[in-house]
Amino acid sequence: MKSQTKFRDVMPVIVALTPHGLWAFDLRTEEDHYIVNLPEDLDHFALSLSATYLPYMSPRTIRRYLTHLLDYLEIHDAYIVDGDLVRVEDGHLWGSKTMPELAEELRTIYGEDMEELLFGLYRLLVDLRKKFITEGIHYEGKIEI
I need a surface site. Which of 78, 124, 130, 137 has the fewest CB within 10 A? Predict the structure, then answer.
């Protein structure tokens, strides 16, 4: 009899942008942490993104678009996981929009810079997920981006 592949075998760690910040959840240990609390850490987070994943955007521009994006997530009661817009229903993640659909909608509403922000955040989420898969999400204070 074949063993059944489970979601946690394929994607053992989820890193998401929620309306309240960057959140990591290890499906293997069921451990979770908010890595960045938003809006409290918004200025620091925008500065870090500008210095790393979005060097061509000013922290002020990133902050403005992050604020819009957090409002969007709050209104839609959704998270961004691997670039896709997802909702949590009955303890399961359900995809609402793929990354290209979300990027197009956000670009239409907020402009080109929002799409660039989304791609920068995607790269960050992927990098954090890889880090947490290998190192675990043991969390001691803030993680530098």
Answer: 130
